[in-house]
Write a structure and sequence with these properties.
single chain; 332 residues; alpha/beta; Rossmann fold; Alpha-Beta Plaits; 3 domains; six-stranded parallel sheet; four-stranded antiparallel sheet; 14 helices; elongated
């Protein structure tokens, strides 16, 4: 049962009181106090007696008001009991609390689909301190995943109303990992229409779906089977390379990690050659690549490369050194 229906049901008795009061004031010409008193004792069937003598029209009005009051109070009471016994009332209270949390969210990530990929994405994000809104039709599956950092919402992820409810215009990114490619294409179209600047990552299963998802508005398309096949082949052909990359990509590993850092105006490396910034000597990090603001990527940038505002540095190093470099870039 929808929250708005319950709110309307609880509001109706007050509407009845207002209508009854206004009716007595118009039909009988009574004061507000007398009209309200007569309405209350009529609706509640207390029956203390008439405030003033009623005209014929007033008696007809009183009968209609009494019948309306009896049926309204009976229906409201029976509905409240049914809600309490069925558990809907507690679920609605929980949903209202969740809606208040959602209204305050900014820079969160919306993950649509709580399957294997959706769960892994959500878990990886929360390890990095990112708040995740997980959307799925299966509310029972969501129940086991909810935490302080994961907000689970049951419903149709492709619904414009639900996407607006989870704050798509304030979100950092959206991950489309629903069961079928057609569902992900439709979800991507809906999300892009609601938030033109949103970063969207979509899953593709079938060959040929990637182009459709890109046309629908996805910034990145991930094919789990293609990635798995590539990793399996490299495990046989280039095991040392794979081990090195796997080591750098495991955020929980204390040795070497890869991180990307957005360069803001006035940062220590903007506007001058990389050799002058001396990042390797000062921080012990290796510059893997530089992604320009226009999304062009310079792999292993030479020393005379000059980073600019809104470029992104991809660096490799140990976690403490990476944190020191990030603080230096932000502090400048």
């Amino acid at each position: 049962m929808k929250v708005r229906y319950v709110v309307a049901l609880l509001t109706y008795p007050f509407v009845l009181l207002a209508g009854g009061t206004a009716g007595y004031m118009l039909v009988e010409g009574w004061s507000f106090k007398d009209a309200l008193y007569m309405t209350v004792i009529t609706v509640t069937t207390v029956g203390y007696g008439e405030t003033h003598a009623l005209s014929s029209a007033g008696r007809w009005f009183t009968m209609a008001l009494a019948l309306g009051g009896i049926f309204t109070l009976f229906f409201a009471t029976s509905t409240a009991i049914a809600l309490a016994l069925s558990g809907d009332l507690s679920r609605m209270a929980s949903r209202l609390h969740m809606n208040r949390r959602l209204a305050k969210l900014t820079d969160h990530v919306i993950v649509c689909g709580s399957g294997r990929m959706g769960r892994l994405v959500a878990q990886a994000l929360i390890k990095e301190g990112v708040t995740v809104v997980l959307v799925d039709r299966d509310e029972q599956a969501l129940g086991a995943l909810k935490s302080e950092s994961i907000i689970g919402i049951g419903g149709d992820a492709s619904s414009d109303e639900l996407l607006a409810e989870v704050g798509i215009t304030r979100a950092r990114a959206l991950v489309a990992s629903l069961g079928g490619d057609a569902d992900n294409v439709f979800l991507t179209l809906s999300a892009r229409a609601l938030s033109p600047k949103l970063f969207i990552v979509s899953r593709a299963v079938e060959e040929g779906t990637e182009a459709k998802l890109v046309r629908a508005g996805a910034n990145r398309v991930v094919s789990p089977f293609a990635v798995g096949g590539y990793v399996a082949a490299n495990a046989i052909l280039h095991p040392a390379v794979l081990d090195s990359l796997d080591l750098a990509q495991r955020t929980g590993h204390l040795e070497v990690q890869v991180e990307e850092m957005l360069l803001r105006r006035g940062c220590v490396v903007c506007g001058r050659p990389l050799i002058e910034a001396r990042l390797r000597e000062r921080f012990g990090v290796l510059i893997v690549a530089l992604r320009r603001a226009n999304r062009d990527v310079v792999f292993n940038p030479p020393d005379d490369t000059v980073p600019s505002e809104n470029d992104t540095l991809v660096v490799m190093g140990r976690r403490p050194e990476l944190d020191r470099l990030e603080r230096s870039i932000r502090g400048s």
